[in-house]
Amino acid sequence: MEKRFPCSLFVSLLLAFFFLFSTNSSDALEVGFYSKSCPDVEKIVRKTVLSYYKDDPTITAPLLRLHFHDCFVEGCDGSVLINSTTTNVAEKDAKPNLSLDGFDVIDKAKAELEAKCPGVVSCADIVALAARDAVSLATYVVRSGKWSKNYNMYEVETGRRDGRVSTVSDAINNLPSSFWGIYQLKRSFASKGLNLKDLAVLSAAHTIGNSHCNSFAKRLYNYTGKGDMDPSLLASYATTLKKECTPTDNTTVLEMVPGSSTTFDTTYFKLVKEKKGLFHSDQALLRSQVTKNYVFSHVTNSTGFFHDFGVSMVKMGRNKVLEGKNGEIRKNCAVIN
Ligand code: HEM
């Protein structure tokens, strides 16, 4: 008895240690991972994003969403970029991913990087950098009218490797639905190492970009199957939306924040507060005290929001990354080596 006790105490301490310190996150990522192996990586990605942005500022939203959809499925490993083959239906072809865009920006940056430092920079890192650059452009450059690298909203950790697995079922099982409530969202985000504050902060990515009618039309016409409307949506706003979207419309696209869908700001919080969030999942933020407080206190606090957004994006970017000798550095982001 006397001998077994210290042993079980040791085991308990060991278990407690693992419980406390085991997360989805990684220690191998670092800011400037490529500083010796490919020192111009950030410059090249920024230049590429900027060249697309100058032609079309709506590029920010798809690039940001790409990083989210990458990180939530198989971790941030570029698996969202992989094309389906004759033997495998990849994440890209899962229904929620059919409206993804911005792949050409990643491919362009990758081609330049492969020319400069072949086999060094992962596609997963390019996605993470491009998301940051795109958001920074939509935040600071829109306001100041000029570009400077000091406008980076946050530092991006790099060192991710590319995954070799991409399946449609993984995407369907891991991407949150726009019809989910707060408990499902909380559980989903927790499984990626993200808490309720991160949920509120990252959901505000919906301050930019567009949505197809079919991502929310059920809320307007047939919420519970009885021809009713989602009560979490402001009735007068539902009437406005009905003029744009018929019940079966799957082609029309609406700005999620009408009139400012290319500016990254706090308007999203104002809309959610007024029950004008486009998705049930947006309005669900009012169903937990933590997320509701965040929404209400950030309607006009853009400085606080930008800071928090950077923190939560870095956290999201650490989800289950491949490092060391795991995975690979893909030559072509759409094809496993
Ligand atoms: C909280 C759970 C989330 C759900 C349920 C969700 C769902 C959706 C849906 C349904 C769309 C519209 C797709 C379409 O119909 O075209 C959308 C768009 C978008 N989402 Fe989310 N999203 C969530 C979180 C996030 C996060 C965490 C980010 C980024 C950090 C993000 C970034 C975006 C962006 C930027 C768009 C606009 C894309 C574009 O205009 O091309 N979303 N989201």
TrEMBL record:
Q: Which residues form the active site?
A: 69
Q: What start-end ranges are recorded for coiled-coil regions in this protein?
A: none
Gene3D superfamilies reported in the protein's UniProt record: 1.10.520.10, Peroxidase, domain 2 (1.10.420.10)
EC number(s) per UniProt? 1.11.1.7
Residues covered by the Plant heme peroxidase family profile domain: 28-337
Q: Where does Ca(2+) 1 bind?
A: 70, 73, 75, 77, 79, 91
Q: Name one GO biological process term.
A: hydrogen peroxide catabolic process
Record note on cofactor: Binds 2 calcium ions per subunit. Binds 1 heme b (iron(II)-protoporphyrin IX) group per subunit.
Q: Where does substrate bind?
A: 176
Disulphide connectivity of cysteines:
38-117, 71-76, 123-333, 213-245
Q: Binding of heme b: at which residues?
A: 206
Signal peptide per UniProt: 1-28
GO CC annotations on file = extracellular region
Q: Where is this site: Transition state stabilizer?
A: 65
| Top-level EC class | oxidoreductase
Q: Which InterPro entries match?
A: Haem_peroxidase, Haem_peroxidase_sf, Peroxidase_pln, Peroxidases_AS, Peroxidases_heam-ligand_BS, Secretory_peroxidase
Q: Which Pfam families match?
A: peroxidase
Chain's role: Removal of H(2)O(2), oxidation of toxic reductants, biosynthesis and degradation of lignin, suberization, auxin catabolism, response to environmental stresses such as wounding, pathogen attack and oxidative stress. These functions might be dependent on each isozyme/isoform in each plant tissue.
**Protein's name according to its UniProt entry:** Peroxidase
Recorded source organism is Rhynchospora breviuscula
